[in-house]
Structure formats: C-alpha cells, structure tokens
Amino acid sequence: xxxxxxxxxxxxxxxxxxxxxxxxxxxxxxxxxxxxxxxxxxxxxxxxxxxxxxxxxxxxxxxxxxxxxxxxxxxxxxxxxxxxxxxxxxxxxxxxxxxxxxxxxxxxxxxxxxxxxxxxxxxxxxxxxxxxxxxxxxxxxxxxxxxxxxxxxxxxxxxxxxxxxxxxxxxxxxxxxxxxxxxxxxxxxxxxxxxxxxxxxxxxxxxxxxxxxxxxxxxxxxxxxxxxxxxxxxxxxxxxxxxxxxxxxxxxxxxxxxxxxxxxxxxxxxxxxxxxxxxxxxxxxxxxxxxxxxxxxxxxxxxxxxxxxxxxxxxxxxxxxxxxxxxxxxxxxxxxxxxxxxxxxxxxxxxxxxxxxxxxxxxxxxxxxxxxxxxxxxxxxxxxxxxxxxxxxxxxxxxxxxxxxxxxxxxxxxxxxxxxxxxxxxxxxxxxxxxxxxxxxxxxxxxxxxxxxxxxxxxxxxxxxx
Length: 466
Hints:
Layout: H1 8-15, H2 20-41, E1 57-63, H3 77-81, E2 107-110, E3 115-118, E4 131-138, H4 144-153, H5 163-171, E5 181-184, E6 208-210, H6 232-252, H7 257-280, H8 287-293, H9 301-315, E7 320-325, H10 334-358, E8 365-370, E9 374-379, E10 385-388, E11 392-397, E12 405-407, E13 409-410, E14 417-419, E15 422-423, H11 424-434, E16 444-446, E17 449-451
Parallel strand pairs: 1-7, 1-8, 4-12, 4-15, 5-6, 5-7
Antiparallel strand pairs: 2-3, 4-11, 8-11, 9-10, 13-14, 16-17
Organism: Pirellula staleyi (strain ATCC 27377 / DSM 6068 / ICPB 4128) (Pirella staleyi)
Protein name: Sulfatase
C-alpha cells in the first residue's frame, strides 16, 4: 500500500558503477524508510481505499470448531435418501467403515428468496433475504490449529498478519480514540493471538482483545488500560513529561519513525481509557434493545453482549470487530450440542442484523459468519460428524453483497465443493474488494519481498456483489 518501488532502470544504473551494490542498498533503505515514516507517523489515520468501497467496516462472527454445514445451511435431499448407506455404495467419498447420516433437523424455505435454512435458526431465517450463503468453501487441512490460523491469516505454515490487521493497515480507522480492530472473547486454544495479531505489520494494527474464551463479557475489561495508582490528571502530567522527553529526542533526529509511533501509541492509550469503557457500558440501551439481543437470557446472554458491543463499536468508528463462539467440534452428541450452540447465537445474530438495518448501517457493514471448516455428512460415533475441509458453508450479509442468494455448491451429499468453489484466499480477496481494497496491491515489504494477505492467490467472487 505504501510502496516506493525501485524501477528496473534504477537497479541497472546503480549496478553499472563501481559502487552499484552499495548504491542499490542505499536506495532500498531509503524506500523502506519512506514507507516506515509514512506508516508510523500516525498509522491509524483514515486512508483512501484503492477504489469506491461497498463496505466501511467488518463484523466477523467466528464459530470455532467446524460448524456442520449439512445441518444448517446446505440442504441435501440425497443425504436423506441415502441415510444409513456407506459413501462408497452411492459413489460418494468418505470412510469405508462409516455410514451417511441425514440431518436430524428440518430445512424449510425462508424469506421471499426461499433460501433453505435449518430449523436450528428460527430467528436468523427471518433475515434470509439479507443473507448470501456461500456453500462452496474449502480449505487446505482438516485440523483445527492450521485451519483456524489459515482462516484468520491466509497461511497455516508461517506467522502472518491477521485479516483484521490487513484491513486496518489498508484503511486506518475513523475514531482516533478507539482501537481500529477489536476482538471479543477470542478463542485461546486454537490459534490464540495469531488470529488477531499483526505479525510483521506495525503493532498498531493488531487486534485489541476484550475478554477471552469462556469468560463472561459482562465482566470483561481491557487489560492494563487504567492506572491503579494515578488519577487521570496525574497520568496526564506523567505522560506530558514522557512525551516532552520523546519529542526532544525526536527533534534531534533526522527521522525516527519508531519513536513517532511510540508517541502516538501513548496518546491513543490515554484516549482509550475513557472512550472504551464508556462504549462497553450498555446501560444507555433501551430495554427493548437488550431484550431483542437476548441479554439477560442465560442461553444467549454472552454472545448477545458480543453482538451488541459489535454494533456499538462499529457505530463509533471501529473498522474491524471479531466475535467468537467456541465448541462446534461435535464428534458426538450432535443433536444436543449443535442445538445448544445455535440457540446461543440465533437470536443475537438476528438482532444484530435488524439493529444494523434500522440504523441504516447494514448497507455498508460487511457481516461474515463461519468456522474454520465444516463436517462430514457421514456419521461418527453414531451421533456426530468428523472434520471436513473439502466443502463447507459460510454466509455474508450487508456490505454490498447480494441478499437472498446461494452461491457455490457441494456435491449431492455435501462432502466436497463442486460449483463456484471458494478457497480461503478467495474469501479474503472478496472481503478486501468489498472494502475497496485490491488484494494484489495491498502489500507490505518485509525481509526483502512484498507480502500480501492472499499470497499469490485469490479470486474475487464477483457474482455475489450487488
């Protein structure tokens, strides 16, 4: 994004003289310094997108564990017909010792679009005409650690910046008193801080964690945001002294982007002390809104708080918000455990979409739902399903995507993606495109090469864009 590239002529010219190598190294150093200065002076300032965006912000609802697509959003009549048969007997892929298992949940057409949605989502089904269901997802490995990290960073082999960090790097944020990227109740066992980290991007672009896996969001705070020993006035005086020392040092340096970044980060942290807790206090919301989300209901309260806070943060100018819900790894107890999971998120998700609509925010807020992979249509342990990376479902809403649409497909039993297939790189390329960012141009030079979220891959799903 902030490249100052050397041309081939520059390289040939410098190589032609006796000091060619040194001159080339000097030019490269100057280019890197120019990038660093521009990025570090105030890295969170709003930046111009590459082209007119459809969406201004992202809410990513991450369901860790591998939600079963064939029980929620990918209706398979053939799976009902072939229930109990071995996959091989009907020409399908799958374990020889396992039997195909129909979904125990009914699917009904929802909305004027008639999208087939499982009875597990009676509330979300009311938003069928807002949803773009992606049924052709696939990823590289059916293992939780690798797949979750790839979903968030595009790579499971190397430590890379998260998609939220890339969006923040590309666009900055609209509220300089808040973090540009917030993650609520992030999962810690799978991926951990990699899922919201900035890797080699400047640290200002990493996600700010609020709460953690299994914690009650009602009691969550941002660690170390408030001083235990100093009043706000005393902190301001202390910070002014430190900043004066920093600026005196800066005045003596020709360029010191790291120090400029430190000065800005101190100021952001001070501003956050009052802005973030104020947004996390939901007492100013009406009782009707709290009830709509399901706050106060034991089954829905924690995820409902995540959804409501996501709306509040986005409304205040936060660029990227991620919500998390663990426990979707259902190798057994599918009927009971999947029902409980869907009950916990159904009403809050419906409320989030409705709340965004009534505030005229859904049109430019990209909401993305999904896990790291799906599950097999054949049974495991009689009442469970195994990991499936070859085909699964996600959905998007708002942010310039077509509503009431099924895009992509798996085979007749739901094992592998077949039509309009979307790899994780394609998903990321499409998300960035909706935000007005060209995934091939959003690069960062590190260790001698240009890196991007999608590596050398990524196709935009143009058919889903409104």
